[in-house]
Amino acid sequence: MQSSVVIDLLNQFQFPDYRVRPPKSEQWLNDPHTFTAEDAARYKASGITVFCLGTGADTYDDAMKFMAQWNGFLAVQSDTFMRIDRAGDIARAKAERKIGVAITTQVSGHFRTPADVDTFYGLGQRLSQLTYNFNNKIGSGFLEQRDGGLSVFGLSIMQRMEKVGMAVDVSHCGDQTTLDALDAATRPVVFSHANARALLPGHLRCKTDEAITKMAKTGGVMGVNFIRFMVRDREPVTIEHALDHVDYIAKLVGIDHVGIGSDL
């Protein structure tokens, strides 16, 4: 962990802990000066080089606030953090002993038109998950009763994302929406946090072999998720069971297509 470049493709950064009010995650974004040296030491000790964020907003206005808060936090805490805008920034963060933060979202409802993709790319967003759990104008989430697949509007959003260089993430998408996006892809598609359905049959948040294979053919990568119910369907759940997913995916499509998306 200390010598490697470590990227967590989906990390909540700091879950709200309501034993502290307001929770630190809110304090830091509303007043970045409340982030202390002790707080910074925790992140530096983690061994993680780059955190890809695990939140986001489903409306344009809320997404603007999200971007403003994170850009403000990273600007004030620039001695500790670095915004990741391009691939070269990852190695630079490691060399400068800084923590990289990639501004990424778990939903794309803030894109009202393809032009909004350009706007948010300019503000620093580098990955967007097409849907969260339910339907939006782009496609269907995995909890919907009927998966209508990638919409015409969704295809236009995805194409603009590929054009500007924003990664397409389909982790929470339903099966048909996932496959439609993979079939339409001209650049790598990401499963930032998803596991292998072959190890949890019937679990719709996990991806089928067909989807994993198509993802790999795009040149994409899949982050293995550490949330217990997505790792194993019974207790105990250990790191060995999480590594079973790493092994399975690596054997199916090769180690270049498997990473970590802890969701923790």
SSE inventory with pairings:
Blueprint: E1 7-11, H1 24-30, H2 37-45, E2 50-53, H3 60-76, E3 81-83, H4 87-95, E4 99-105, H5 114-122, E5 125-129, H6 152-164, E6 167-169, H7 175-184, E7 189-190, H8 209-217, E8 222-224, H9 228-231, H10 239-253, E9 258-260
Parallel strand pairs: 1-2, 2-4, 3-4, 4-5, 5-6, 6-7, 8-9
Q: Distance between the terminal alpha carbons, to the nearest Å? A: 17 Å
Percent range for β-strand residues: 5-15%
The oligomeric state of the chains shown is single chain
**Spans where pLDDT lies below 50 across 5 or more residues:** none
The description of the largest β-sheet is: 7 strands, parallel
* Average pLDDT metric: 96
Provide a concise account of the structure shown.
The protein has 264 residues and is of the alpha/beta class. It contains ten helices and nine strands.
Describe the structure.
With 264 residues, this protein is α/β, with parallel strands linked by helices. It has helices at 24-30, 37-45, 60-76, 87-95, 114-122, 152-164, 175-184, 209-217, 228-231, 239-253, and strands at 7-11, 50-53, 81-83, 99-105, 125-129, 167-169, 189-190, 222-224, 258-260. Strands 1, 2, 3, 4, 5, 6 and 7 form a 7-stranded parallel sheet that branches. It has a two-stranded parallel sheet with strand order 8-9. β4 (99-105), α5 (114-122) and β5 form a beta-alpha-beta unit. α5 packs parallel to α6 (152-164). The chain is globular. 41% of the residues are buried.
